[in-house]
Each structure stands twice: as C-alpha cells, then as structure tokens.
Task: structure prediction
Amino acid sequence: MIKLALRGARANLGRLILTLISVVLGVAFVSGSFVLADSLRSIFDQVSEDAFAGVDAQVRGIENDMNSTDGEIPRFDDGVISSIAKLPEAQYTEGGLFSFERAYTIDSNDEVVRPTGPPVFTGSWGGPSPVSSFRILDGEPPTAQQVVIDPVQAERGGFEVGQDITISLPFGEPEVFTLSGTIDFGEGGTGGAFFILFDLPTAQRVLGLPGQVDSVVVAAADGVSPDELVTAISAVLPDNLEAVTGEVVIGEQKEDFGSFINIFGNVLLGFAIVVLFVSTFIINNTFATLVGQRTRMFGLMRSIGASSKQIMQMVFIEAGSIGLAASGLGLVGGLGVASALKQLFSSAGGEFPEGPLEIRTRTIIVVVIVGMGVTLASAILPALRASRVTPLEAFRSGGKTARPLTVRIAAGSAVLLPGLILLAIGMFGNPGGTAATLACIGIGGALTFIGVSMLSAMFAGVVAGFIGQPVAKLRGVTGRIARGNASRNPQRTSSTVTALMIGLALISGVAVLTKSILDSFEEVLSESISADLWVFESNQRLEFSGLLVDQLAELPEVGQVAGFSPTAIRIDDEVLTATGFDSSTGTSVVNMGIVDGVAEIGREGIAVLDTVAEKRQLSIGDQVDIEFEDGYATSLNVRGIFDDASVIGADWLIDRRLTTEHRITDGITFAGLTYADGVDPAAGRAAVEATTSSFPQLSVQDNTEFQEEAEGQIAQLQIVITALLVLCLVVAFFGIVNTMVLAVLERTREIGLLRAVGMTRRQLQSSVRWEAAIISLFGALLGVVLGLLLGWAAVIAIPDSFVSKLGIPWGQLIVYVLVGGLLGVIAAWFPARRAARLDVLEAISTQ
Amino acid sequence: MTTTETLAAAARIVNGTKTYGDGDAAVTALHEVNVEFGSARFTAIMGPSGSGKSTLMHCIAGLDRLTSGEAFLGDTLLADLKDKKLTELRRSEVGFIFQSFNLVPTLTAEENINLPLSLGGRSGDREWIDTVIDTVGLRDRLSHRPSELSGGQQQRVAVARALASRPTIIFADEPTGNLDSNSGSEVLAFMRRAVDEFGQTIVMVTHDANAAAAADRVLFLNDGKIVHDMSEPTAERILDMMKSIGS
Result:
C-alpha cells in the first residue's frame, strides 16, 4: 500500500511539487519566526549576562505603579553610595546614572549622529571595575570633560579617539568633549543602541541631575554571598530604595528583552499562520482534484479488493510524504526567511544586532508537526471522498456529482456565521484579555474566510461569467472559451482563488485601515489644532526638557507656546493618565473642545473629558482628590469639561506646573506654538529653530510637515505588513499554477478537439491565460471587497480617538484587483504553454 | 495500387508511409499508400483494428505527418506547412466529425457550429450556415449547451460545424460509433445529403458495414495497405469483403 501510494505521489510529482512549494513557504515562515526570535533571545540573554557579570547586588529606587513613566527609572541621592561602600560585605561600590535620548554627538557637518530605531543612552561610566557593564575597546575611560562612545557611533560620526567632539546636551548649549575611548556593552555589542558616557559628576551635570544616581552596583567582599550582601545593604537603605542580587537584575533584564522579542516573534508567527492557513486551501484543492481525477483508478482498486480504508490510507500517505518533505525544506528555508526578515526590518528602519541564526530542537519539532499536520488536515476531506469511491465507479466514465446547492449553502453558512460572531466578539466585545481577543479575531477570521470560500462557489460561476463578459466581447471565441472555462467549475474556481482572496483581503484591509488612520489624523489636525508650529522628538516621540517652553516663550516672534507632559495620576485608587499643559496658553495651540467651564484651569484646577465626567458624575466646581507620581496628594477643582482628546491623548488635563514638580522628570512630549501677530512665518520659524538647535533630537514642523511625516511612517508600516502578507500571494500564485495545470490536464481532449478544428497554439495559450485572469480577478475582487469590510469593521472597533472615520484608498484597491488578475495571467504562463504544446492527435485520443 | 477518379481529387496521398517508433519497436502503420479522394464524393475507409485507417485519415487531415511520401489537401503539400499554417488550413479547408466528445462543452450549439469560423475571425456565409442548420434540423437547439443535447443531436451539431466553413474535405472518424441505429442513420443521411446536394467531399472511417454502405466508395485497408477499392457498395458486399480480409 505504501509503495502504491508513493508511486502515486511520484506519478503526480509535478503537481505535488507545486503543492509542496506552498506548504514549504508557510512552514519556512513558521521556522523563520522561531529561528529569528530564538537567535535574538540568545543574543540579548548573552548581552544581559555579560553586562551584569560582576554585579553581586544592585541598589535602586522602588518602582511603584506610577513612577515608571516613559522608561525613566526613579533617581535617588548619591549619598547612599558612601554608606554602602563602608559595609565590610561590600568590596566595590559604584553609582550610576542613565537616561536616554538626552544628548547626541554632532558630526563635522553639524548633523546629529543617531541610530534609526534603537535609542541613544547617555550616562555615567567610571572605567573598568568588577561591576562595570562596559569594557573599553580603545583608549581610556572618561574623566572631566571627556567622553566615551560605542564604536558604531564613532564610525558613523567619523570620530577618532583623542579628537574633540561636540555633544548636544539636554540643558543649555552643546559642549565640546574629548573622545577618550570607545566602549562595548557587555561582550555582545550594543544591540544597535548608541552610548554616550561621561564620568559620574559630568553625567549628573549634563543630565541636570546633580547628586543623583539611579542605581548603585556592588561587588561582594571575598566569602560574602550575594544574598548576604543584599541583606547587609538593605539594613542601611532608606525606605524608597531596595537592594537585589545581580542574578535578579540579569533575570529582569532578560525578561525585559524577552518580552519584547516574544511580541516580535508572536507577530511574525501570526503572519506565518496566515500563510499556512492560506496554503491549506491549495493543498486541499490539489488533493481534491487529484482524487477526482483518479476516481476510476480508485474504483478499479476497490473492485480488485482494496478496502476503503486502504484507499484512504493511500491518500494520507501521499499527503504525509509531502508534509514531511515540506517540513524538511521549510526548516532549512526558515534560515533564509529569518535572514530575509532581518533585511526587511532593517530596511524599514530597525537595526538588528549581529549574531548567528540558531535552530533549536523545539523549532524542528514544531515545524515537523505543523508541516505534517497542515498537509494531513488538508487532505482529510479528499481522503474521505476517495474512500467512498465504489468499485462500480471504475466502469463509469467520469462525471463526479457535485453536492447539491442547498447542502453547500447550509455548510458554508454553518461555518461563516460562527466565524462572523467570533470576529464581532473579538472586535467589538470584550472577551477578556488580549489573548482571548486575538483568539476570537483569529479563529473568527479563519472561519469567516472558510465560510466565504465555501459560499463563494455559489456565485463563482455567475460572477466569473460576468467578469469574463468584456473578455468574451474583446477576444472573440478565444475569450468566450476562456470565460466558459472560468465559470464551468465554480467549486474549483472558488477554492483556487481562496488563497488569493485571503491574501488580498488582508492586504486591502490593512490599506483601508491605514487610509482611515491618515484621514482621521488629517481631521484631527484640521479640527483640533491651531498651532503654527510643533516641536517634538522626531525619533520615538520621547520626552524632552520642559525648559524649552520657557525659552520659546521669551522669543519675540512667538505669540503663545504650550508644552504637554503626560503623567500617571491616582484617582479613587485607580492609576490613570493625565496630561499636564500650560493652561494659560494651551487653547491657543490645541482645540480640546471645551463644552463646559474653561480651559484655563490654573494650578488648582483640572479638566475632564465629557464621557468620563458623565461616568464619574463630575461637574464644574467639584473637587477631585488626586495623587502624583512622587506621592504628593492634593485636591483639584473641576474647572473645565472637554470633548476632544485626540491631541491631548488623555482623559484628564492638569496644569503643567504640577507635572513639573511631581514627576520624575520635567519632560514634555511636545510643544505647540503660535507666531506673534504680524510675524512672518519664515522669520518665526527661523527664530524657533535657532532656539531648538541645542536640542538636536527635536523636530520643528508645521501641520503639513507633521502630517506628511506621519503619513510616511504609517506608510512604511503598511509596506512592512504588506510585504509579509505578500507571501500569501506567492502561495496563491502557486495555487493558481497548480489548478491551471490540473485543468489543462483534465481538458486534454477538449484541447485536442479545439486544435483539430483550427485553434492555433497562440489562441489556445491566450485562452488559458484569460481563463486564469478571469478566475484571479474574481478572487481579487472578492478579496478586496472582504478587505474593505474588514477594514471598515476595524475602523468601527478601534476607539475614535485613534481612528474616527473610514478612508477608502480606491486607487490602491483597484491596483490590488489588477495585480490579482495579472498574477493569474503570469501563473497561467506555464500551464498555457504546456497546453499549447500538446500533440493534437494524442490529445484527441486521450480517454 | 493506383485508384483512378473521374473528378478532380480533393485530397491525395502519394507513396505515403507512416512508421511509429524506431528500430525493433518500429511499427509501420501505412505502407506506401497511394490514394485519391475525389471531390463531391463520399468515401468510407474500412479495415480491422490496426489496419492503418485512422492513420491514413489523420495524415491527410493534417493532424499527423507521413514518415515518407506526400500528402496533398487540394493542391497544398502538407509537409511544407508549419504548425500555424497547418492549423489555419484545418480551420478553413477541413471539417472534422469525431466519434465522441465532438463539441466544446462550454460553448452553445451555435457557437460550436461557428467555432472554426470564429477561430479564424470570420463570420462565414450566414445564408449557408442557416441552410446547414435547417438541414440538420437544429434550429430550436442553437442556444443549448452540449450537455443539454442527446448524443444524436450532438453529432448533428458536429456535422453542421464541419459543413459550416464549406471545407474542401470533411473527415469523419466513426461518426456513428456511439449512436443508436436511428440517430446513426439520421447522421449518415445528413452526410449523404451534404455530398449530394451541396457537393461536399467526405471521408469517413468506420467499422460499421451499414454506415459504410451509405458511401459512394469503400476503401479496405489491411496491414497499412489498401487491399480493395469498392464502388457502389452495399452492406452485404462490404461484410463479405471484411470477412475475406479478416480471414
């Protein structure tokens, strides 16, 4: 039986290879996701271990639920260093201070040197020590007006050790430092991030945090265990500090990196599953067709004594051997996919640390299970059908009976409806937790696609006929034949293009969502913004010093200026986000839609979003008890109720003086300003830019530029997502090739007849290509319509503060439909040639 | 063996030999055959299985090429033509009627009838096509698909298609082989009328003595050679002849 099955597989090798490719693509993507995530995890684990290799204990501020805003950790007085150093258990003690996106090196062209993506760290380094996270690569550790940086940054900026380099600082004018050396973080490079390190006093000075550190690292004296050290240190620490062992730090560090890598890996895996899902349709379609074509053979085998179970086994063995081969190839292909993904993300602005790709045993097991599982699962229905072939069918000629329409409608609806319900629950309901939401959307989406695919067989013939109308008109009888063939087997037409449909549905859904985000954004800009210029950190929208607001306010060219600073607050034991803003000037740059009271809330006032006010039954004049990040508690008077939080990004508004005093940092995320009356925009802008030049990380943009930049960034994200989804189209492509090959084979006799009565090879080729074009256009159209619906549902599901209106990128959608059609034409190239090359006589005499 | 004809030949083969395969496995399907098919004549080709009758037909119809010798369709030497020209020649000068699977299932009866013409981008002689359609009695079936027609009707559509372009010659390969005797006689009657009334040339390969008796002339093949040339055949004489060949 195995031999027979394998022989069957070999006889249909060409067709099975195409199927194999589609499985391999999906499997390779799965394996690639694992390989990439595992490799990154290894690299970062190594980095974490190296960095804290000599640390036995670390002292740090205790984080509570409010004080970790924007990734900055709590600072504390460096007086604690000396009291720790005095402990007999401590052999070596060192305080450190770090911040990021604060200072930047500036090259000879006056350009800021910074990586795209990863952050720039500014901090302290006291030179090689038992607890140091850094090691010197070249030169000397920094003292006084000296600095060390990482070699990548040095190369990018063209800096040589010993050279004087200009560094922009968060407060005040840029200063010149001597580059005393280059350093490496741990042993594993810097993971793409840049480092600018001074000695501790200089770091405290330039960061504006004199006498402050954010960590103290300690090496234990001989014979003292880390735990003993921690106990000893804890005894001398004030309440707001804690001591932990180096092991804990390493663990936390790994977890931090790990959780990011997990998200990244899971997103990739998500795409991989989509690709796999798409390929199941191809596998299923191929096996269904192969089984259909071999009905007589199965009948013959049954009549000479094969049991129906054996027939089923045969199909499964065939599928299994494909699954196994696909798993093997996919595993290897995963390495290629991992490299390609690295490339893709690098080109989109991310930077990946160098390191070898690794295949773990877990990856191999998962890949084999997935590859075999997907293939076998796709072959279940065809195998069942094969097993039901009766011996009599050996003597009947062809003509499989299609399932009645009503059964198909019932089956399709039975799949589609729960799919839609799950999808709706996932998008609009609250199934509890991200995982549940994703599961609802994922399973619901899959069922929806399967259901649509099943139901689409009902109208595939009619629609394909309709699409083929112009082709039939234009191309005469060749077109009519193409059209007829495209609509003659609706079941096959619909299952052939399911992969294409899903791929394009996702791609156009993303396009619709992107357009909606951009349109909503444009609306926000035009309705909610009255500022002439915006100032913000252009890389990651990180915070920058609020001092800039004061500097800008002093400019004669500037009319009003307001800074915005997000902060955690506690109201009724609930941690919430508020935005601190300059309440006296805020309304001149942002329109938050005050519906009651005023925006000028002042230091003792607070403003609330209307829906929140309603829920909490707050009205003008009420008092709200509020606690700040540093624990300061006060009561604020409700002075304003607003209805537009799109720019502010929070439900609560307070005066920025409060956030400046009661946050860890004085940072703001953006500032908006208007020109003074009668100031020429160009002159006003020049003045503003002159002021911000000491903060090279900042961008100054007007609304148009702001929008263009956002468009650019969102478009880039769309490109990355689309690029990943294009793999679905590749799978779909092979599916179409496969079906066309099978269709041509099935119609050999008809082709012979056509050739005999005078169809030229060229006409035949053109007719096969048009057939594929019509089929693909059908799938593409269906996909784009589905994508439109999905995008629309997503727009409704996503909160209005993010996406408020539906935007339809007609141009893109039309292009997608045409691309789909073109894909079909290209996919039919080889099958069409093959059809044209058939020997007329042999074709006619085929049974 | 040479066959003389009173009328000009619509097709002829001169010293035609056809071998399949090489060396030991070589099979000679036609052995130096010389034959002419007269215009406006209905010729039947008979012979046991493997006698070469289908090969003979295929070679004159431009579906297959002779290994040696020359095949002419009208005055055209087929060996000179490349696939494209040959296809165009089949389209305009040759009509085909096969035993089964004669029609393109996705096209209507009318589209099938017009198929060779539309493939050439021609609309053909409408009046003539109307006459043909009426002759075969398909007027009320024109918009039907092949699957909606009976076997006999399908063959009549095939006859109509073969006639539609007024080809130099029509080749029919067992046209009645799959039909019951009533439908078979009907189809034969139409072919007979096409010859008698429209001056069409028809060459028919058949196993059926009754079918062959409808022809003006019957050629008997055996082992790749023409062994007998019978004019004004009757079913009885044909059967006798077949018996003598078979024994």
Observations:
- Chain A is about 55% helix and 15% strand.
